[in-house]
Predict the structure.
Amino acid sequence: MRIHKLSISIALLTALLGLSIACSKKPSDDTIAKDIQTKIAADPDTKDSQVNVAARDAKVTMTGQVKTPVAQQKIEQIAREEPGAAGVDDQTAVQPDASAAPAPAPAQAMAPPPPPVEKPKPQPIVVPSGTTLTITVGQALSSKTSQTGQTFIGTLAQPVSVGGRSAIPAGSTISGTVVSAKSKGKIKGQGELDLALTSVTVRGQTYNIQTAVVAQTVKGKGKRTAVATGGGAAGGALIGGIAGGGKGAGIGALVGAGAGLVGGTLTGNQQIEIPAESALSFRLSAPLTLPPPAQ
């Protein structure tokens, strides 16, 4: 019995001694902190880091700054692998990279790009004063039947160009007015027919125009004159002849530089008749401005 008690005592003593030895082998907090600090200083990835290591009850706390995220991860790995460390609180921060390139200037601070080179805009076409417009009338006109203020319609017989650019195409619609129509017997037996143009339609757009008034007057027995009034310029000369002074005698129209002329017939009773499809020429007394043709 005494031997049995002695064996138990020896076993308890051995256990206590082993526990004491095990406890004496557990590293202290200072040992843990110093060991981690030494490993951080020796590792090539972390040696340039400014880190402070402290340990309390085997829990490791690290503070300070590291240069890169890679170094931060390596420091935490070293601390967690430290024998005796019971936990790691990593409070380190990554330093801003002072060598990094400066951020680009805001877009609004950069110099604006040069403006795009604009193509020159097409210039308007100006048909000068004095330009002759030769038209074909669409209806008959007469000193006997036409009325003052009456409108007549025609089409441009010859195209008009300015500086090599088409201004008024042939076939453009022309409007005119009967300035004066006087039948024989109203004023000392003479017949008179005065005409002028008022508008032209170009590519669907109508423009007002001003022309010299072309006046035809017949006096006495078949004596006929034609002048252009307005601007003080004569209208030129009629050519052709009167065949016996009868109806249907041909009177031509001379289209000359600056001439405003008409063609028609002189009836036996001294009336001026201009049949439909007759050619009449008028001179612009004011310039006409047209937009440039579509590109």
Remarks:
- The mean pLDDT is 75.
